[in-house]
Amino acid sequence: MTKPVTKQAKKATAKKTPAKKPTRANTAATVAKAKPKASTKAKPAKNATRAKQGKRITGLDLAAKVLSDAKEPLQAKAIAERAIAAGWQTTGKTPHATLYAAMIREIAKKGKASRFIKTDRGLFATNK
């Protein structure tokens, strides 16, 4: 004896997968029909306007200058205050934290070739 077919069984067998479009082979004819790329022209540098204005001094450059002038280890907050007084322009609310993180990154990346050394907790000096 066979089992009667239920509605759920009919739905399960009635589902069809959508038909896929056949793919075209990459033949010489299809490659020849491809549109040629537009010629590339020399583009001006992204920072062309900055180059015309002159090189901006970075916070790390000013921090190195401040530390070399101080001739003693300083905290990041004192370095940031002196760098801002020397002309560092920043719009952040915590420039000392930004400077601290940048000095730590340079020390981690460059190691002994870094311009800074960490002498004590929160104190930085120049790497002579």
Write the layout of secondary structure elements.
Elements: H1 7-14, H2 28-33, H3 48-53, H4 59-70, E1 74-75, H5 76-86, H6 95-110, E2 116-120, E3 123-126
Antiparallel strand pairs: 1-3, 2-3
Helix pairs in contact: 4-5, 5-6
Give the spatial strand order of the biggest sheet: 1-3-2
Q: What's the end-to-end separation, in Å?
A: 96 Å
Number of E-state strands: 3
What does the overall shape look like?
elongated
Mean pLDDT over the full residue set = 79
Query: Number of helical runs?
Result: 6
Residue stretches low in confidence (pLDDT < 50, at least 5 long) are none
Q: Give the % helix.
A: 40-55%
Written as H for each helix and E for each strand, in order along the chain, the element string is HHHHEHHEE
Overall structural class, as computed from helix and strand content, comes to mainly alpha
Radius of gyration: 33 Å
Overview of the molecule:
The longest helix has 16 residues, at 95-110. With 128 residues, the protein is mainly α. The protein has a domain at 58-126. It has helices at 7-14, 28-33, 48-53, 59-70, 76-86, 95-110, and strands spanning 74-75, 116-120, 123-126. It is built from 6 helices and 3 strands, in the order ααααβααββ. The chain is 46% helix and 9% strand. Strands 1-3-2 form a 3-stranded antiparallel β-sheet. A hairpin with a 2-residue loop joins β2 (116-120) and β3.
